[in-house]
Amino acid sequence: MKIARKSPELLILIMTIGAGISWAVWLNLLNNFAIEKIDFNGAEMGILQSLREVPGFLAFTVIFVLAFVREQKLAYISIALMGLGVMVTGLVEINMTFYLATIVMSIGFHYFETISSSLTLQWIDKDKTAEFLGRVIATRSAASIAGFALVWIMFEQFNIDYFWLYIVGGSFAVIGALFCWQHFPFFPQKVTQTKKIVLRKRYWLYYALQFMGGARRQIFVVFAAFLMVEKFEFSVGEISLLLLANAAINVVLAPKIGRLIHKFGERNSLIFEYIGLVFIFIGYAVVESSTFAVFLYIADHLFFSIAIALKTYFQKIADPADFASSAGVSFSINHIAAVFIPVVFGLIWLYSPSLVFLAGAGMAILSLLLALNMPAKPSAGNEVLLGKFS
Questions:
Q1: How many Å apart are CA 280 and CA 303, to the nearest integer?
Q2: 196: Cβ–Cβ under 8 A, 6 or more apart, which residues?
Q3: Across the strands, what pairs with 379?
Q4: How far is it, in rounded angstroms, from Cα 333 to Cα 331?
Q5: According to the model, what pLDDT value does residue 97 have?
Q6: pLDDT at residue 66, rounded to an integer
Q7: Longest dimension (CA), the chain
Q8: Residue 91: predicted pLDDT
Q9: Residue 364 has what pLDDT?
Q10: Taking the CA of residue 105 as centre, how many other CA atoms within 13 Å lie in the half-sphere pointing to its CB?
Q11: How many C-beta atoms surround the C-beta of residue 155 within 10 A?
């Protein structure tokens, strides 16, 4: 798949790079910064992660903003806001300001993710979407490698303070937004997007899988890395190397995953993902070896790349005019559980970390049952095998 200069595809990839580096720096530093500088425990980390996900839950509000700001321009604003939130994090010293800086970062991050998904579905042809989304994941992973390497070099080799790490990390998103604003034209929409919230009965399986994916993903995002630091005492440098290896593997495999999804279909791909995640979460629950924990972490992240299939499934069944609205709605649905799971499971973590991951296995099983209801060749009018709505 060739990408032309100043094309919509290239714009999406460049925005992904800017946002990806800033996100990687924030993610890399999160657990160590929270524990070493703010003295967080598991419950406080749960509160932070729940607050971080509130803007994701409110992602449907993007449709109201789009009544005043065109979608492409809002993508630039969102990336810049994300970068500013990362930069401000370096200034915090107490819980409350840490929470506030995280919310600012999260608003930009979740609005950008919502808009990027919408623009991809609008701009990319259906027969190329899975492969392009694989390339987006690979690009994000490559950006993450740059971010993780930056943290490792600055922290481990030059002993740079957290403050400057956050300043440098956040600046990539801000500079990326300004670059795209100045160097790319505004691309026309192929279909005029609906400027209101859209919830359709025939999309119910997509909504259900989005909800379960959001709930399950929180177990990984919040507690898998926290396990590495708390139980196995990984340092900032070791976390950097883990994330670096993880991203490097995704650079190589994510485009191939996109092509395999196109070949084997969304149903088979998602069934394979959910079966794999059941065993991975059970592994987290019983792991006693740091080496095995690293293997689980990398495999977990790789399996989540198969979630590309959920986006291509929706592209095949949806009215093209619904893409922008549905991107916000689905992102909100994806984050419903994210608002309360980090807090609730943070308290469970204090009692038994294993129970947290066993719950993740249960969520993967429920997702598997839902995926069995997906047709082999989904399309408008053929969205599900059972429970059809007109």
A1: 10
A2: 63, 325
A3: 382
A4: 5
A5: 87
A6: 82
A7: 62
A8: 84
A9: 93
A10: 32
A11: 21
Write the CA distances from 42 to 39, 79, 221, 226, 386, integer angstroms: 10, 29, 13, 8, 41
Average per-residue pLDDT for the chain? 86
φ/ψ bin of 265: left (φ > 0), alpha (ψ from -120 to 50), beta (otherwise)? left
Q: 3 is written with which tokens?
A: 């990408």
Please state the φ and ψ torsions of residue 159, each to the nearest 5 degrees: 55, 40
Residue 156, pLDDT score: 77
Buried/exposed 50-85: b ≥16 CB within 10 Å, e otherwise: bbbbbbbbbbbebbeebeeeebbebbbbbbbbbbbb
SS (H, E, C) the chain: CCCCCCCHHHHHHHHHHHHHHHHHHHHHHHHHHHHHCCCCCHHHHHHHHHHHHHHHHCHHHHHHHCCCCCHHHHHHHHHHHHHHHHHHHCCCCCHHHHHHHHHHHHHHHHHHHHHHHHHHHHHCCHHHHHHHHHHHHHHHHHHHHHHHHHHHHHHHHCCCCHHHHHHHHHHHHHHHHHHHHHHCCCCCCCCCCCCCCCCCHHHHHHHHHHHHHHHHHHHHHHHHHHHHHHCCCCCHHHHHHHHHHHHHHHHHHHHHHHHHHHHHCHHHHHHHHHHHHHHHHHHHHHCCCHHHHHHHHHHHHHHHHHHHHHHHHHHHHCCHHHHHHHHHHHHHHHCHHHHHHHHHHHHHHHHCHHHHHHHHHHHHHHHHHHHCCCCCCCECCECCCCCCCC
Of 5, 1, 25, 50, residue with least CA distance to 240: 25
| Class level of CATH domain 8-184+193-371 | mainly alpha
* pLDDT attached to residue 88: 92
For the stretch 36-90, pLDDT in tens is: 887 777 678 778 877 887 887 787 788 888 888 888 999 999 999 999 999 999 8
Confidence of residue 193 (pLDDT cuts 50, 70, 90): low
What is the Cα gyration radius of the chain?
20
138 burial (CB, 10 Å; 0-12 / 13-18 / 19+) is buried
Are the C-beta atoms of residues 32 and 96 closer than 8 Å to each other? no
Q: Which residues pair with 382 in a beta bridge?
A: 379
